[in-house]
Each structure stands twice: as structure tokens, then as C-alpha cells.
Design a protein that fits this description.
The complex is a heterodimer.
Chain A: E1 4-5, E2 10-11, E3 13-18, E4 25-30, E5 37-42, H1 44-52, H2 68-73, E6 82-83, E7 100-101, H3 103-110, H4 114-130, E8 135-136, H5 138-148
Parallel strand pairs in A: 7-8
Antiparallel strand pairs in A: 1-2, 3-4, 4-5
Chain B: H1 15-29, E1 33-40, H2 48-61, E2 66-70, H3 78-81, E3 89-92, E4 95-96, E5 99-100, E6 106-108, H4 130-147, E7 153-159, H5 165-174, E8 180-184, H6 188-204, E9 208-216, H7 224-232, E10 236-241, H8 246-255
Parallel strand pairs in B: 1-7, 1-8, 2-6, 2-7, 8-9, 9-10
Antiparallel strand pairs in B: 3-4, 5-6
Helix pairs in contact in B: 1-4, 2-8, 6-7
The chains are: A alpha+beta, B alpha/beta.
Chain lengths: 153, 256
């Protein structure tokens, strides 16, 4: 799918993506010549069709995780399907240089369905490590969600 | 006004590149697999999974490194047939480790991931879900191929569900049509259904490895195996009786 500014005869460039949480998707495209911006709005079925292909409009923000589509999209997965190597460490278990999770962040993570929790935990963990963050807090999670486009995680 | 293929500027979404990366991921993963065999029929209830599991076990007993991918996402039975104990699938950066069943056979199946007794259901809009459900299942198949840490295998058996849809998806994901082992029962009804599947496989370019005629010697009458073998110039590799012994499967391994 591409967008053409007919007046300028210019291919429009991707701007940003938003997932409002109601199953729809909004993506903006801008003409590099005249600056006109248009928004592509997809309904839940169209959004789902893109998701089902395992691709992301606007490009991938994090590397593909093992069984990513299965874990994100299967609604009837068993709680103990995956072993990610333990629960996140809190302060009491932390040691120098280790990544820890604040109590509030652990509580928020615990609300993520267990079928996909390990994958989400790893994405946040990688995000923190790459930026030298030693403690994951709800604020870090919010920032990561916004930067990485992890809507719904 | 210019049309799609006339617009050649780089696309930040890079959907084509994302699809390409998915295919490379599968190809890289399967680089250590010497042989892929798709077990298919086109007819339900002929014992594809039963044949697949017992063939895999016989290969394992023969000292081969073998894996089974249960591509029947909606009716998965391989873990049960391979007597695979349930355990959480260990996940690392290298992928998801397969389960280990009887005779050392590695396997992955939706049955290992779903709640007991639950159907495969996806999140998303329920209205007109047929539009995206097929694509979702194809993605699950792709991830089973590309994200399971199969390691080096002599043979990876793909247990396909009835019908041709999963076979076609498999051809697209792999980029090359896989060799096919066909399973039938003796009846003319099975012959007619399997004939269509074999024709589709031939038209796609798959090598026909041969036919396994299952449930032979009982109440099911007919000669589907021989008729299909003659029609497609491919051998009947085995005729499986109702109560096969390990030797039955060992002989099939020798033929394959």
C-alpha cells in the first residue's frame, strides 16, 4: 500500500502510527513536497488482516520474537505454555548490574496474560538494557510503549 | 496519475521487506534439516497423523534425528500419538524448544500451547473472521517452521490436516513445494479425494514420494492405493494393517 500526492505527483512518506485500542489503526502519510498530510484509517477487520500477516505498518520497532504472532493473537493459550526463565526480579533479589522491576511494574506485568507475558517482559527488558536502565518502573514501561509502538502490551 | 509499481521511493513500512525477513527466518532455521516430508491426504480420517507419528518413531529408532510439525492447528493430535509429556516450552533468543516424544522424536503442536480441550481461537473481531483467520493460521505455521529450535534434523515430517489449504500455505512459506508422502485408505471415496490432493501437489511441483495405504485388511474395501499408484506412477510404500507391529513401520522407513 502506497500513497501518492496527485497534485505534486510525489509518493507520500509514512509519518506515524496509532492503535487506539478499539481494533482500529490510524497511520499518517505526508507529501515531502507540499507537506500535505493524510490519515489512513482502517477498521478492525482490516487491522486484523495486517496483524495476521505478522507485519507492522510503519516498520518493525523491535526484532521479531519467537512465536510472536501465536503468542500475541491466540486467545485460548494455556497459562503454562512457555518457560521464560523465571519471574522478574524485584529489589530484594537484585544485585549489582542486574535489571530489577519495581513492585508497581511487576504488578502491571502480572496483569498481562501469561501466554504472552514472557515475550512482553523480554521486550521491556531489552529496551531497558539497551538504554542502561537498571530498574523498570511503570514510567519506563510507558516510555517504552510510546517509543516502540507497543500498543496493547 | 502514476500507479503502484511506478512509485519506487523507499517505504518506511517495508512490508515487502518484512515478508522477506520472515521467509529468511524460516530458511535459516531449516538450513539444518536435511529432508522435509509433507504427509498429506486430502481426505480426513485416513490416519495421516497416526502414520506420521509411527513413521517418525521408526526413524527415531533407526537412529535418525527426526522432528514432527503438527500442521493440523485446529485438530492437533501429534503430542498424544508421540506420548509427549506436557511441559512448558523453554524459550530463548534462539527460539522455542520443541517437545521430545517417544523414541526421541522432536515435535511442536498447537496442542502443546492451548488450554486443555479449548479450540484454537484468535483475538480480534468476530464478524467476518474468515477474512483474516486463514492468514493467521498461515502465520502460525510459518512461526512453527521458523521459530522452533529444531537443531539439525535428518527428517522433518509435516503432518498436514485434511484438504489442500495448509499444503498451499506451506509451499508459499517454504518457497519450494515439499516432497509429499500420501496417505489413503482402500475405499473408492478416499481414492477420489486423495486423487485431487495428489493432482494439486503435482501441479505445484511437489515430488510424490509414494503412497501409504492405511487400514488395510478389514471392513474397508477397495484398491485406492494401487489405483493411485498407477495413475501417478508412484509406488505404494506400505500397506498398514489394523494392528501394525514396529516392523511394519521399520519396513516403511526402508522404503522411504
Amino acid at each position: 500500500m502506497k500513497f501518492l500526492c496527485v497534485e505534486c505527483d510525489q509518493q507520500m512518506a509514512f509519518g506515524e502510527r496509532q492503535l487506539p485500542g478499539d481494533g482500529t489503526l490510524a497511520a499518517t502519510f505526508k507529501c515531502p513536497k507540499c507537506g500535505r498530510v493524510v490519515a489512513m484509517l482502517t477498521n478492525p477487520m482490516e487491522t486484523q488482516l495486517v496483524s495476521s500477516l505478522g507485519v507492522e505498518i510503519g516498520g518493525r520497532t523491535v526484532p521479531a520474537q519467537p512465536l510472536e504472532t501465536v503468542r500475541k493473537m491466540v486467545a485460548t493459550g494455556r497459562d503454562d505454555a512457555f518457560d521464560e526463565g523465571g519471574e522478574p526480579r524485584g529489589h530484594a533479589a537484585g544485585h549489582n548490574g542486574a535489571l530489577t522491576w519495581s513492585a508497581d511494574a511487576q504488578e502491571r506485568l502480572s496483569r498481562v496474560p501469561s501466554f504472552v507475558r514472557g515475550m512482553v517482559k523480554k521486550i521491556y527488558g531489552d529496551y531497558a538494557k539497551e538504554r542502561g536502565i537498571t530498574e523498570i518502573t511503570p514510567a519506563v514501561m510507558d516510555t517504552a510503549r510510546a517509543e516502540l509502538g507497543l500498543e496493547g502490551m | 496519475m502514476r500507479t503502484y509499481h511506478q512509485l519506487t521511493d523507499p517505504d518506511r513500512s517495508g512490508l515487502g521487506e518484512q515478508i522477506g525477513a520472515q521467509r529468511k527466518r524460516v530458511a535459516d532455521r531449516l538450513a539444518g534439516v536435511r529432508r522435509i516430508v509433507a504427509v498429506m491426504s486430502g481426505k480426513g480420517g485416513v490416519g495421516k497423523s497416526y502414520v506420521t507419528a509411527n513413521l517418525a518413531r521408526a526413524l527415531g529408532r533407526a537412529g535418525k534425528a527426526v522432528g514432527v510439525l503438527d500442521a493440523d492447528l485446529n485438530g492437533p493430535t501429534i503430542p498424544g500419538l508421540l506420548q509427549t509429556p506436557h511441559a512448558a516450552r523453554r524459550t530463548t533468543d534462539q527460539g522455542v524448544e520443541p517437545a521430545i516424544g517417544a523414541d526421541g522424536v522432536k515435535c511442536i503442536s498447537m496442542a502443546l500451547l492451548l488450554e486443555d480441550g479449548a479450540p484454537l481461537a484468535f483475538k480480534g473481531p468476530t464478524a467476518e473472521s474468515f477474512v483474516w483467520r486463514g492468514a493467521m493460521e498461515a502465520s502460525a505455521l510459518r512461526e512453527f517452521l521458523g521459530d522452533i529450535a529444531w537443531g539439525d534434523l535428518d527428517t522433518l515430517l509435516l503432518d498436514l490436516p485434511p484438504g489442500m489449504q495448509r499444503y498451499i500455505e506451506l509451499c508459499d512459506i517454504l518457497g519450494n513445494p515439499p516432497p509429499v508422502l500420501t496417505v489413503t485408505i482402500p475405499t473408492p471415496e478416499s481414492r477420489d479425494a486423495v486423487r485431487r490432493a495428489m493432482r494439486a501437489a503435482v501441479e505445484r511441483g511437489s515430488q510424490l514420494l509414494g503412497i501409504v495405504e492405511n487400514m488395510v485388511g478389514g471392513e474397508l474395501k477397495g484398491s485406492a492405493g494401487d489405483e493411485l499408484a498407477q495413475e501417478y506412477a508412484t509406488p505404494v510404500l506400505a500397506r498398514i494393517p489394523w494392528h501394525p507391529t514396529p516392523d511394519t513401520w521399520n519396513r516403511l522407513v526402508a522404503q522411504l
